[in-house]
């Protein structure tokens, strides 16, 4: 008998708010597709789980993004996020369908929900992961190797959950790329009706006040010009280059800690994870905590006056020199090309 009889497939929690699906759900579906392809003998599928109210019409979007099945849990108690009702509903889904693994975005919601569900199921959970692989040495099970920063971000630890199912993990947004939408992709929609023993909310949401996001969301920008401590005294020109390219400025933690930039634009382990088409690192040393947040960028150009700077190890193009000299030249050149 197989070790985990009845447990099958990789499930992805598809987070939505007001019917808008967060990209991280699609990123995880794309990655889950790659994982199931590595174990064809197990015939695993990728299953999206969509919770909310009046959200059934979104199931086709989830299929177009690569899910083979979507479980739709539509209930008025799930209209807005509630730890209590989402935990109740999701636990029932997992008990009913027995996923082999269950992935959730490490968003504010995911970080609240996944541990609750894991505790209720007595399942193992790896939180805040940045990498997932399939253990190539296990032929008769789909054991996930889930990597996350540890010891204050100085080391990476790979965690396995060999004894329980589902193997649960929360994964940071923007870590995985999203496959292109395929409207021709076919899948099955399954409606699941949860039953709530206790329908009295323990926490009552009186009002929802949307956060006003000031400035640009760097995770959405396709071109980023990153300022490091070496560019602290020429941030105006870093910003001007970003603007000329139609992108945004971001910063290393050193610049944020020194008080020259807002935490909202910090890239890295304790900041945001970004994956733009172009990342220009200006006066950034390339510490692993910074690199963890931008190494998946399609093209990395690094400008640093130290030829030994770590950032050159991951850069596609390296320019050795003073940012104060190079950035004005770059800005003029971009202007000329655009003219
Ligand atoms: P520095 O390390 O001071 O490097 C400056 C670079 O600029 C040097 O390479 C220098 O050669 C170059 N330079 C100087 N002047 C010039 C010039 N005129 N022209 C060209 N080059 C020049 N860091 C992050 O960025 N993001 C994080 O999320 C993050 N999280 C962390 C979490 C933990 C738990 C810890 C311990 C650290 C974290 N850090 C993070 C900090 C990280 O370790 C580095 O200290 C930080 O990234 C360094 O920033 P920097 O490269 O801008 O500055």
UniProtKB/TrEMBL annotation:
Gene Ontology annotations of biological process type: fatty acid beta-oxidation using acyl-CoA dehydrogenase
Superkingdom of origin organism: Bacteria
The keyword Flavoprotein belongs to this UniProt entry's keyword annotation: yes
Molecular functions per Gene Ontology: electron transfer activity; flavin adenine dinucleotide binding
Cofactor note: Binds 1 FAD per dimer.
Keyword check for NAD: no
Chain residues that bind FAD: 229, 252-253, 266-270, 283-290, 304
Pfam family, one: ETF_alpha
Keyword annotations of the record: FAD, Flavoprotein
Location of the Electron transfer flavoprotein alpha/beta-subunit N-terminal domain: 10-207
InterPro entries, A to Z: DHS-like_NAD/FAD-binding_dom, ETF_a/b_N, ETF_a/FixB, ETF_alpha_N, ETF_asu_C, Rossmann-like_a/b/a_fold
Gene3D superfamilies: HUPs, TPP-binding domain
Names of required cofactors: FAD
Family of this protein: Belongs to the ETF alpha-subunit/FixB family.
Name of the molecule in the record: Electron transfer flavoprotein subunit alpha/FixB family protein
């Amino acid at each position: 008998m197989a070790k985990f009889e009845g447990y099958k497939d990789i499930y992805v929690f598809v987070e939505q708010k007001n019917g808008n699906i967060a990209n991280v759900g699609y990123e995880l579906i794309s990655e889950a597709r790659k994982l199931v392809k590595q174990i064809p003998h197990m015939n695993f599928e990728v299953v999206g789980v969509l919770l909310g109210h009046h959200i059934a019409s979104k199931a086709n979007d989830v299929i177009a993004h690569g899910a083979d099945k979507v479980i739709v849990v539509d209930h008025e108690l799930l209209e807005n996020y509630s730890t209590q009702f989402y935990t109740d509903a999701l636990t029932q889904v997992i008990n009913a369908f027995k996923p082999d693994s269950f992935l959730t975005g490490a968003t504010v919601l995911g970080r609240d929900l996944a541990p609750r569900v894991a505790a209720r199921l007595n399942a193992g959970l790896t939180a805040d992961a940045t990498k997932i692989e399939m253990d190539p040495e296990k032929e008769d099970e789909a054991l996930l190797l889930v990597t996350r920063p540890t010891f204050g971000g100085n080391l990476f630890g790979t965690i396995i959950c060999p004894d329980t199912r589902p193997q649960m993990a929360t994964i940071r947004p923007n870590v995985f790329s999203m496959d292109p939408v395929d409207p021709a992709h076919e899948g099955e929609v399954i409606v699941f009706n949860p039953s709530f023993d206790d329908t009295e909310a323990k926490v009552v949401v009186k009002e929802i006040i949307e956060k006003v996001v000031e400035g640009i969301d760097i995770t959405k920008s396709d071109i980023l010009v990153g300022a490091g401590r070496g560019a602290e005294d020429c941030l105006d020109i870093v910003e001007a280059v970003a603007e000329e390219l139609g992108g945004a400025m971001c910063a290393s933690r050193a610049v944020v800690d020194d008080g020259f930039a807002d935490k909202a634009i910090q890239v890295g382990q304790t900041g945001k994870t970004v994956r733009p088409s172009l990342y220009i690192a200006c006066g950034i040393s390339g510490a692993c905590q910074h690199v963890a947040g931008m190494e998946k960028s399609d093209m990395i150009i690094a400008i640093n006056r130290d030829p030994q700077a770590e950032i050159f190890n991951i850069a596609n193009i390296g320019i050795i020199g003073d940012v104060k000299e190079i950035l004005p030249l770059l800005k003029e050149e971009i202007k000329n090309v655009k003219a």
